[in-house]
Structure formats: C-alpha cells, structure tokens
Amino acid sequence: MSMGLSSVGVRAMACATAWGAMAWLGAGAEAQVAVRARIIHTMAGTPVRDGVVLVGADGKIERVGAGASVTIPEGYEVIECAVLTPGLVDVRTTVGLTGMYNVDQDQDVLEPGAPMQPELRAVDAYNPREPLVGYIRSFGVTTVHTGHAPGALISGQTAIFKTRGDTVDAALVKRDFAVTATLGGGAMAGGDKSPGTRAKQVEMLREKLIKAQEFARKDAAKADDASEEGEGKDAKPPARDLAMEALVDVLKGPNTKPLIITANRAQDIASALALGREFGITVWLDMASEAYLLLDELRSDGGPVLLHPTMYRAWGETSNLSLETAKILADAGITFAIESGYEGYVPKVRVVLFEAAAAAGYGGLGFERALAAVTIIPADILGIADRVGSIEVGKDGDLAMYDGDPFEYTTHCVGVLIEGERFPGELEYEIKYP
Amino acid sequence: MRTIGSGGWWVGLAIAGGVALCTSAARAQETPTAFINARVIPIDGAEIDRGYVIVRDGKIVAVGAGDAPGQGRAERAEVDCAGKVVMPGLVDTHSHIGGIGGADGSGPIQPGVRVRDSINVRDSGFRRALAGGLTTVNIMPGSGHLSSGQTVYAKLRFGDEVRTIDDITIWNEGHTPAGGLKMANGTNSQRGGGGAFPGTRGRSAFLVRNAFIKAQEYKQKLDAARREDGSVDESKLPERDLDMEVLVEVLEGKRVVHHHTHRHDDIMTVLRLADEFGFRVVLHHVSDGWLVADEIASAHAGVSAILVDSPGGKHEAVGLRFETPGVLERAGAVTALHTDDWITDSRLLLRMAGLAVRGGMTRQGALESVTIAGAKLLDLEDRVGSLTPGKDADLIILSGDPLSVYTVVEQTYVEGRLAFDRSRPDDRLHAMGGYNAATDTEPYFCCYDAEMKHAAGLAQSGGGQ
To answer: Does B314 touch chain A (CB under 8 A)?
Structure first.
C-alpha cells in the first residue's frame, strides 16, 4: 500500500516487478490484456508453467495456455508477474457494511430494535467506495459475499459484489442472496428482552419459519385462486410482507435462498442442523469453531461450511477454535471455504489471502487446498463458478498477481484485474480517506 | 530526552546495576546440551548454515559453525537439528497474557497499580506464547487510562516449579520486579470528559503534565530528606504516595515509560512530554510512525510497533501501514514488534516480522525486531535477545525459515529447559487450538499430580492436620 511518500523506498521495491511502473489510471475495462506468469494456478487442472492468460475487450478470459502455445495478438497490453491466481473470493464478510473508522456513521452491520429482520438487504447498505474494499482488493480479493454481521437472530439478506465499481449496481453480482442468522451467545438480546437463552433462540426461529410456511400456504392459495375455480377462491391473498417473502424463499432451499447460520459452539451447530432437518432445508454453517466435534453430522446433514478466519481470536464463543479445522474438514471431505468474517474492532477487515495462508502453513492444510478454499470452492458454494473462482476460457478476467508464493508473508500482490480492469496491488494502493 | 536502546548512558547504568533474573529456580550443575547440525541465526552475527549452540546451567556457553567441539563424543546431551533453524527465544515488548487487569475506573492516572498483582500463571495464554516461541514478555496492564499502572517483564518458564507470578518475574537487583510504566494517549484514555477522565487530547496532556510536576515536587521533598552523607532524615520525608513513588522512578530514569500512541500528533505529544520531564520512553503501536519517523529517531525514542491485517478499527489507527517498521528502521530508530496479545496472537509473532519485511524492513531488522531490539527496549539486552555466550539459554527450534508461512516452532527452551514441544499432545493442543485449549492450564497436564504429591508429602511430614 502506498503511503504517498517517495522517500520510503517501498516504491522501488514495487517497481522491481516487471510491470510495477505501469500507470493505473486510465486503464479501462475495454483494455485487452495478456498476463504472462512463471506459474498460473488456474484452479482448473494442474498449474500452467510459463503461461499466458488473455483477457479480451469484453473482460472475459479468451485463452489460457503455456507461453509457447499462445500468440499474443496485436494491441494487447502485456503484464508480467511471477505467480498468477484467480481473483480471490471471500465467502463471507461484512466489508462495505463495515467501514474503516468503526464509528456509527460507517457501521451498518446490525440494526437494533428487533432480533429478526430478514427484510434488511445488504444491497441497500453496501458502500463500494469504502477504503477497506479497495484494501482487500489490493491483496487479490475480487469477489465478496457480504452482508450484515453475526449478532442478531436474523440479521438480513446478503449480496455478492465485485470489489470494483463506484456504485452498488456497478459492483453487484447477486443481490438478496442468502438470509443470515446467528445462534448462541453472540445473538442474545440482553436485559429482559428476547432472545435471552439458546432455547428461546431456536424457538423464535422455529416460530418465524412456521409463520413463513403459513404465509406461503396463503400465497399458494392466492395463486390457485387465479385459476378461477380453485378451492381458495375466497381466500384473501396475504398482504405483502418482505420478511415473510424472504423466509418463504429460504424454505424453498439453498438453491433459492440459502439460510446461513452463524454458530460456534457444538450445541449451536447441532441446533442449526436440527432446524434445517425440521424444515427440510440444508443449512449453511458460518464460523463453526467447533465443527471438528461434529464431522459425521456435518457430512450427513450440513451444507457447505463458511469457516471462521484461521487467525480468529479464541475467546468466548470461539474459545475452542483450532487453527487446523480447515485441514480436518478437508480430510473429512466436508465442503468449506475460508471467510474473512466479521470483526468488531481490529483488524476491521480480515484478508482471506492471509487467513488461507495461515491455514496452508500453520494449519497444515497445504497450498493447493488452501488456495481452493478462497477461489474455486467459494465460487462453487455461492453459485458463481460460471463466472469466477478459476482461470478458464469464458470466465471473468479476474486475476490476482503476486511476486512469489501468494501465501508467503514476504510476498506482495503486485496487481489485480477485475473483468480486465486493472487495479493496484498492495504497494501502490493508496487509501482515500472519505 | 534520554536515549532508548542506542547505547546511551542509561544503558551502561542498567548493565552496571545488573538486572538479575529470578534466582529462586537455582539449579544444580547440569550436563551441557548441544544443539547440533542446525542453521543458526544468532542475531548478533551472521547466520550460520550449519552450526551449533551449546548451553549449560541455563546459559549459552558456545555458538559456532560446523561441528560442535567433540561432536558425537562429548559427555553431554546432543539435539540433532539437521534441517532446522535455531534462533533466540522471542521477546514480546507488549502483551496482555495472563488474564491481566490494571487500573480501574476510579481515575485516569494510576501508576501505583501493578499488573503483577493480577496475573494467573496458569492462564493458557502462557502456553500459546511458548508455542509461538516467546520466552520474554513485557506484560502490560490493560487500556483506557493515561496511566494504567506498572508492567512486568516475565520469563516464560514453564513446569511444576512455576507456581506464582514470582516464578516468572524478572527481578531487578534488590529483588524489585523489573517493569516499566504503561501510559497512553489519543482516544484510548478519553472517556467523554467532564469527569475524572479526559475528553480531549489537550486535557489528556494537561493531566499527565500536572502529574509529573507533582512528582517533581515529591522528588524534591525526597531529595531534601537526604543528608549529605547519603542517609535519610525520616522526619523530612513526605507521606508515602505509591503513585508518586513510581513517577519519581520514571523521572530518575529507573523505569521506562511504555506509551500507547497511534496518531502522528499524539506521538509528538509523547515526545514533547518525555523531553519536558526527561523520561525514557518506548512508543507503542505507532500506527502513524511512518509520518514522524525522523522525529522519533532524532528523539532517540524506542519503538514497539504492531502490524494488524488492516488499517482502522478505530479512528486513530487508520494510518496503520505494513511499511512502518521499515521506515523506522531506515530512520535509525530501535524498532521492535509486539503482539499486544489478544489483539494479535502470541503464536504468530514471527508472522508479524514477515509482514514487516513485506513492508520494506530488512530481514535482519525484522529478526532483530522480535529479539534483540525488544531486549534493548526492556533493558534486558545483556540477558536475552541473541545467541551470545553468557546470555540466558532461551532458544527456539524452527522447522524452517523464521519468516516463512510454512514454518512452525517445534520447541521452545527457556533457560535451557524445554518449555514447549510440539510433539507433546498437550503442547500441540495449545499450538493449534481445540477443545478446552483456551481454558486455564489443565491440572492434569501441569500441576495437579505434582500438587497432590506435594500435599501427600506435607501430610506425611506432619504438616497436615
């Protein structure tokens, strides 16, 4: 990240990369780009050595191959780097709803007043110009699934964005994607308000989902009514209810609208899975600090796990988290991706590159599986693998460039492409204070 | 202002004064142990591709390249470190492990409070710190005060002999606990104002200035009570005031101020006050340090910096940059890194050194930032921080390069004793985390058996009722 100082000697280091001196400004999405790299981790087959990726004027990947086999067409800007990966996908964050200053004015993560507000939408709260969005992009993160924070029984609906664009619409990939809920100590109302216990939390969720079932029944009756002689022709269509509509979609299952439940303690994980069984839906778990205690249950009943940041602090609800849970889940064949999650204090946003690195090294997950956990696997989980998560022809030209092993502490992200549009890496990214 | 960590007069004084380590764990003569075939990073000299470190009676006795003298034949234990790295145990200049508590809400300046009086030596944080290769830690009282009390320098000894805080305390000569004074400015110590606590930076500085002026006056009374022959006229002594006694130690250069400060102007306020009152200061956190690096260096203040994974989280830390340690290094400031555990995890201090290199610090500077630089800032450089013969045998064995993400701490030795071994299940639990890893040390693993045996012994010897 640039500090706006020419004397600090960091810029010189950045310029040691073959393309460090290239101008960032004025690079439009229409640019045709060829990226040469000593190694390309495509995440679709074995890595390509001394390869080239062509990104066309439409921002899509046109060619991927060994350098010798790819002719770079005239007019393509050539960029070189040591290591190329797909743009990273953060499977669960709150960035854009949380801001760097951490003051009321830039925190839109939790709405007080009611414990269950599925009607809230991240798309109405995401700030694409938040400096932390650019910050994580400068380390290679190009897609984020973001939303309200854990801490309310139901906090809202998430959305998926690219980490570019000056407006929500320009950044948006999918809106109103999932409903987020929280079980356990993190979502108690406090005082004499509900929920005040774990049992009450589950009861309140159950009641709300039953109401949604009834709402759906009335809605279906209304639809029958439209066919004239239907039994429900006298049935009154229910009044619009945005909360119920969101939960009706949840009841249709994760292909329509996933229910993501943040749960850390094993008993909360079990409650989340049981709730899913009760309503015939597959629940996605978030954080899941004690997932290693319930591997069989997760295999039989669970959806994908949006796993806590590897370096998340072990305290309170997360006291028992382990730095090797990613490895344990991977070995058990449970689908998971590593998230940046939510932080109330510092670091205000975590960087999935770092969390995957800690899992790869300290946590014993290894390079390939850790990189997959922040690229192709989260893309699959989020249903956007047709666009992102791997370097394949026809996918978005979202690429992250590094001057060495992306996970090494001393490596730098030297640049990022999102649909062919160039963005600065960590050494050049300059925070613009809002 | 007096110099920190650059060989100023007080360094000589500290060495002459002799910072003595705890002697309660005195031991019989032990056979030496040689760590052989290791890549040795001594810190005080060039890295050795294949060499040895010999320790005896808790001290380092020899470090060198190639085979150790008499390797394979000598009367001693030998630890084969082929493929491994041996370097000094890490020094963490700012940590909150041990379930600490400091000053309370009754006032913003409470130098009399000692963090030592709050520490649980069975806290799992000590195990995690050992798993990260930490062997010397400056344990600080918590935040939110202009001064939240006295810090304590601790040696992370581990085992049955560690029973109370005394067993891990590093002692000054005269058996007073070694430590500094925690201070803070900026928003950390502001609580809205209108009461005892300041609401603005101006009042924060005023309150500190006022306290030090009172301490100067208190010191004058102490000095006036001293007769020419050095004896004390007790009738002239002022009433004892524990807060003032500590501030006088600070004024006399006997106690270093460890000062939380983030924003560039807050850093300058610390330097101004240190200059005004002549106290020795280590600047902690210094998010904006890169903006005033030359000022810090020319004031000869020490720096204990932290790198967290993104800027912000609070207003005064939006300037945080990975570049800061490198900028400070180039400016010539003695620069250490700290965990501020639980802000960052003690198990990952070496990671921070790696990030400092990422931000432009030299490799040597980064390795020093978690070893000898910290030792200098704690006045312990004659004891710890490098693999120098005569120093404490605090060392760690790493699986690979200290700045690589793929490296782990395999063993941690404190004064020659194995305090962490990743191959032991209970140590591994604390290294990785897992069920019950964050609770107090399990009695089964450390103390319970020994306590029961001890109790049985007491009963047999008639000590029991």
So the answer is: yes
Answer whether B318 sits within 8 Å of A361, measured CB to CB: no
Segment A229-255, tens digit of pLDDT: 555 555 677 899 999 999 999 999 999
Q: Do A363 and B432 touch (CB under 8 A)?
A: yes
Distance CA B54, CA B47 (A): 16
A285: closest CA among A194, A172, A150, A384?
A150
Helix residue spans in A262-347 (DSSP H): 266-279, 295-301, 325-331
Peptide bond into A195 cis (omega under 30): yes
Chain B 343-362, CB below 8 Å of chain A: which residues?
Answer: 343, 345, 347-348, 351, 354-355, 357-360
**CA-closest candidate to residue B212, choices B149, B289, B273:** B273
Q: Does the distance separating the beta carbons of A363 and B360 come in below 8 Å? A: no
Distance, in Å, from the CA atom of B107 to the CA atom of B114, rounded to the nearest integer, reads: 15
Q: Do B435 and A290 touch (CB under 8 A)?
A: yes
**Token pair belonging to B27:** 């031991």
Query: Is B308's Cβ below 8 Å from some Cβ in A?
Result: yes
pLDDT tens-digit readout, B11-46? 333 333 333 343 334 455 678 999 999 999 999 999
Question: Are A9 and B348 a contacting pair at CB < 8 A?
Answer: no
The pTM assigned to this predicted structure is 0.92
Structure tokens at A206: 């159950």
Per-window interface: A 136-155 vs B, CB < 8 A: 136
Query: Containing H/E element for A129?
Result: none
How many angstroms away from the CA of A56 is the closest CA of chain B? 32
CB of B131 within 8 Å of any CB in chain A? no
Beta bridge mates, A179: A157, A259
Distance, CA of A226 to CA of B258 (rounded, Å): 75
For residue B125, give the chain A residue with the closest CA. Answer: A314
CA B248 to chain centre: 22
DSSP helix/strand/coil, A370: helix
Beta carbons of A185 and A317 less than 8 angstroms apart: yes
CB contact under 8 A, B318 and A431: yes
A115: closest CA of chain B, how far (Å)? 25
Burial class (CB in 10 A: 0-12, 13-18, 19+), B444: exposed
| Percent composition of chain B: helix, strand, coil (DSSP 3-state, to 5) | 30, 20, 50
Sheet of strand B257-261: strand arrangement = B147-150, B181-184, B257-261, B281-285, B302-305, B335-337
CA distance to partner chain B, nearest, from residue A341 (Å): 13
Question: Does residue A312 belong to the interface with chain B, where contact is any CB pair within 8 Å?
Answer: no
Q: Computed over its alpha carbons, how large is the radius of gyration of chain A?
A: 23
In chain B, residues with a C-beta closer than 8 Å to the C-beta of A8 are 290, 323, 326-327, 330, 360
- Poorest-confidence range of B280-294, B410-424, B447-461? B447-461
Sequence-distant (6+) residues with CB within 8 A of B296 are B267, B271, B283, B286, B289, B303, B328, B331, B333
Please compute, for residue A266, the number of CA atoms within 13 A of its CA located in the half-sphere on the CB side.
12
Distance from CA of A74 to the nearest CA of B (A): 36
Q: B334-368, pLDDT tens digit by residue?
A: 999 999 999 999 999 999 999 999 999 999 999 99
Q: How far, in Å, are A14, A211, B299 from residue A255 at the CA level?
A: 43, 21, 62
What residues 179-208 of chain A have any CB closer than 8 A to a CB of chain B? none
Q: Name the strand (E) or helix (H) holding B138.
A: strand B134-139
Residue B108 burial (CB count, 10 A)? 24
What element of type H or E holds A401?
A: strand A399-402
d(CA A115, CA B400): 49
Question: What are the φ/ψ torsions at residue B342 (nearest 5 degrees)?
Answer: -95, 10
